[in-house]
Amino acid sequence: MNPQERMKIARHPVPTRAPESRIRCFEEVALGYDEATAREEAMRCIQCRKPACVEGCPVAIDIPGFIREIVAGNIASAAAIIKRTNSLPSICGRVCPQETQCEQKCVIGRKGKPVAIGALERFVADCDRQYGLTKPDVSVKPTGKKVAIVGSGPAGLTAAGTLAQLGHEVTIFEAFHKPGGVLVYGIPEFRLPKQIVREEVSTLERLGVQFELNVLIGRTLTIDEILGTEYSAVFLAPGAGVPQFMNIPGENLNGVCSANEFLTRVNLMKAYLFPEYETPVYCGKRVAVIGGGNTAMDAARTALRLGPEKVYIVYRRSEKEMPARLEEVEHAKEEGIEFLCLTAPIAYYGDSRGWVSEMECIKMELSEPDESGRRRPVPIPGSNHRISVDTVIVAIGAKTNDLIVKTTGGLSVAKKGYLLVDPQTQMTARPGIFAGGDIAGGEATVIAAMGQGRVAAHSIHRYVMEQ
Question: Between 440 and which of 15, 228, 285, 435 could a Cys-Cys bridge form, CB atoms 3.0 to 4.6 Å apart?
């Protein structure tokens, strides 16, 4: 089939559960391709000589290469190609924003819809997990060097896997009681089943990676104490676990919480299975989620599954400016969540028991773009109005805990509290200490954090071997 014929093939949508059946359960929404559909979708790729899609991938997967193997029916070979640079393909195929990365640069997308690279990656990775098509290489020669990693999120897991494959002894120190970071506490079960995260962690364990859980670096141990033992280097990837609030009246009322707390209770601590899991979570009848990013969509869709009568997304810009993935916005709308755009809360009011009962909002209009490139929202005088709510979930961003910075000397910190690193190596101002993910530049995507983890791992390898 020539390129012109391939370009005439329509993109295959990923099948999903019907909204009416999924809004009261936590089963995965996107169902993925079967083999026949995956091969048909793979045939849309015209195998460019200079594949721009690879440039759009933070971990530089050989996208034409693995797609070519799908067409040939060699799924094991496709999986092996992906795993050369991506140690978490089942996760990336589900949660990465391919539409703004690899798929955005797809040549087919210039005249139609791009190849569904993310869905094809998920198909290959799921086949690999289900049928054991590839095995981790545990025959690598040990280097005798030990590396410590702080945090078991996407950046930490990626760095760990890469370093282990290079022959180093790796220990991950994780503050929570389960490994996975944002993959387990932030992303809901219906978007990323936790069994997949457990299987990816098990793969790392087979490579020899050790996990030390319930260890809060800066309290339980310090970086200096770690480096004072047998570790030759440290990679900091603790994630962004400290929620931000708007600091408006009434935020201290009962019923007002952060998306971090809400999602952690539901996802990591299984609050949605109460009383089977003894983690109660309150969700009222009228829920407002403040924010327009992926975390806001996750919180709103999670809250909906706990049985309220109404769930709102309240966002100060227009829908066009929302940073959330288009797919997540569409799924939220399908499920009946109401979007109140160009609206911002300015105060919360409580009842006699101290529980939030109303939210005062003001209408907004957009002016000139701000430093983020999005048009700045400006309040419209006299547009104040109140909305009846009994639960408010604030999802306007998070930052990393400053414990590590406060207890570790020699680090350079940006004005916003992020660690300054060399973008070529991810090394901080202090030799032997590297950083990636949220702590090294603010909230980012899973795949962007993984890209930094991979760069850091190779930099750490060079550093410890040259010592």
Answer: 435
DSSP line for 403-433: HHHHH-TT--B-TTSPBP--TTT-B-SSTTE
**pLDDT, tens digit (0-9, with 9 covering 90-100), for 361-400:** 999 999 988 877 888 999 999 999 999 999 999 999 998 8
pLDDT tens for each residue of 185-225 = 999 999 999 999 999 999 999 999 999 999 999 999 999 99
User: pLDDT digit string (tens) for 138-176?
Assistant: 778 999 999 999 999 999 999 999 999 999 999 999 999
In three-state secondary structure terms, 333 is helix
| AA identity, residue 286 | R
CA nearest to 407, candidates 221, 215, 272:
221
Q: ∠ CA(86), CA(79), CA(2), 5° rounding?
A: 110
What global pTM score does this model have? 0.94
CA distance linking residue 114 with residue 93, whole number of Å: 15
* Residue ranges for the chain with pLDDT beneath 70: 442-443
Identify the helix (H) or strand (E) that includes residue 256. Answer: strand 256-258
The DSSP H or E segment spanning 449 is helix 446-466
- Enumerate the H helices of 166-306 as residue ranges: 182-185, 194-206, 223-227, 259-263, 294-304
User: Which secondary-structure segment (H or E) carries 123?
Assistant: helix 117-131
Tokens 């793969």 correspond to: 203
Residue 323, preceding peptide bond in cis (omega within 30° of 0)? no
Q: How many CB atoms lie within 10 A of CB 377?
A: 21
C-beta separation of 33 from 93 below 8 A: no
Strand order in the sheet with 210-212: 210-212, 169-173, 146-150, 231-236, 433-435
Can you give the pLDDT at residue 442?
66
Token readout for 360 is 């005062």
195 Cβ contact list (under 8 Å, min separation 6): none
Phi, psi of 192 (to 5 degrees): -145, 95
Which of 180, 32, 190, 91 is closest to 447 using CA atoms? 91
